[in-house]
Amino acid sequence: MRKKATLLAVGLTLVMLVTVLAGCSTVNLTGQAEGITVSGEGKVSVVPDLATLSLGVEAQDTTVSAAQAQAAAAMEMIMTALADNGIAEEDIQTQYFSISDITRWDDETWEEETIGYRVNNTVSVKIRDMESISSVIDDVIEAGGDLTRVNSLSFSVEDPSIYYDEAREEAMADAEAKAEALAELGGVRLGKPTYITESSYQPGTIYYGAARVDEAMESETAISPGETEIKLNVQVTYDILN
User: Fold this and answer.
1) Which helix (H) or strand (E) holds 238?
2) Which structural domains are found in the chain, ordered by start?
């Protein structure tokens, strides 16, 4: 008798559980947001206020010590030129330093032989006075001579956060306009945002190339920073109203 009562109780519990589940809303098991999901973009054009110059020296000789001595002397001259142009020590950072073999193939021994050594020393320099970029480059090339290598020059905004509010407002307006258009086409009413995420991007204008003293000293190096764009993207999911 007890066994039958237990089975009856279990059966009633299952019936009640099925009834409750039948009255519940659909559960989202996929993890995907429900509603209308769109992306929006905001862009702000800004005149760069910071230039980053990648430069260095490359020297080679038959011994490591000789190559290192040439590179060190050239880099010391470059550092003096940077200081003379008002570049602070904290705005100069070593990017790369290497000592590598220079080899050639020996047809008689069928082996590679070392004929010298190459020393590379590269630094990254932040130039905050945008009007001094040309003179900095010219003075650096003159100081380091033929051992000087100018690898790249990029422009950016040191503190882009002050422009993000404008870009964010534009991005959200763009997303809302897209969502409203989709809601109208779908014959539904647009609700409030239920999910928002953003990502930002600040591209730099980069010039690549290597310069030598005899080429650059014919005239002043012409540099124009132009404008850069600060971009902010949002992804927004809006609720759908019945």
Assistant:
1) strand 228-241
2) 50-156+203-225 (3.30.70.2970)
- Tens digits of residue pLDDT in 106-123: 888 888 888 999 999 999
**pLDDT tens sequence across 142-167:** 999 999 999 999 998 888 888 999 99
What does the alpha-carbon distance between residue 240 and residue 180 come to, in Å, rounded to a whole number?
Answer: 11
> What is each CA distance from 180 to 202, 206, 225, in whole angstroms?
29, 39, 39
Statement: residue 46 has pLDDT above 80: yes
Q: What is the reported pLDDT for 29?
A: 31
Q: What DSSP character marks residue 34?
A: P
Torsion angle defined by CA atoms of residues 161, 166, 169 and 172, in that order, rounded to the nearest 10 degrees:
-70
pLDDT for the residue 33: 55
> What CA–CA distances, in Å, run from 56 to 61, 93, 145, 146?
17, 11, 11, 11
> What is the spatial distance between Cα 19 and Cα 177, in angstroms, rounded to a whole number?
42
Residue for token digits 């051992």? 147
DSSP letter assigned to residue 90: G
DSSP structure string for 127-191: E--GGGHHHHHHHHHHHHGGGEEEEEEEEE-S-THHHHHHHHHHHHHHHHHHHHHHHHHHT-EEE
User: Quick one: 57 exposed, middle or buried, by C-beta within 10 A (0-12, 13-18, 19+)?
Assistant: buried
The amino acid that residue 62 corresponds to is T
CA distance 172 to 186: 21
